[in-house]
Amino acid sequence: MTFTxxxxxxxxxxxxxxxxxxxxRMVARLKHDEAVIGGIGYTNFDLWAAxxxxxxxxxLGSMGLAVPIALGVALAQPQRKVIALEGDGSILMQVxxxxxxxxxxxxxxxxxxxxxxxxxxxxxQLTSTELGADIVAMARGAGIAQSAWAADEAAFEELIELSLxxxxxxxxxxxxxxEKPAETTERDPPRIRDQFMRGLGVxx
Length: 204
What we know:
This protein is an alpha/beta fold.
C-alpha cells in the first residue's frame, strides 16, 4: 500500500462527510477525461449537480450495476481512468463484482462507495452496513488490496489523487451523511447514453 495518510481500520472510525461536498472534491480533480459511472439514487444526483461532464454516465433504475459497467468501460478503454461511484445498498446487491474486479486486476479502475447505512431514496431503510457489514473489509477479502476508508475530506482527496495517478484497482469507502441531493438527474436515458458515448470518443 502506498497510502501516506493514516486510514481508519473500520467503518465506525471514519468521519461522516457530506456527500455533495466530497463529490465536488472528486470532480474537481478530474483533468484527463476520466470516465465516472454514477450509481442510482442520491449518489447519482450529486454527481449530476457537481458538473455536466460528457464522460459521466448517470445510472437510472438499474441498482447495483455501476461497478460492472465501470469495469466494462475500463476493459474497453484501458488507457482511461474509470471511477465507479456507488452507494452502500447498491454495492451490497452486487458484492460479487468486487471479486471479479480483483481477479481482473483492472489497473485503471477505482470504486468509490458512499455509505450512509440506508436505502435513502426509498425511505431510509437500514442497509447491512449500519448493522455491522464493512464494505472495505469485504473488498479486501475479495482481493482488492488497495481498499481503505477515507478518514476525512483531506484523506479522501489524497486517495482520489492516488487512484488517478497509480495503478489499481482501488476501493475508497466514504461514510456520508443523509442530506438531500443538490439536484435531480435529468431522466433522459437516450441523451445520457449519447453524451457518454461522445464523451468517450466512440461516437462522433
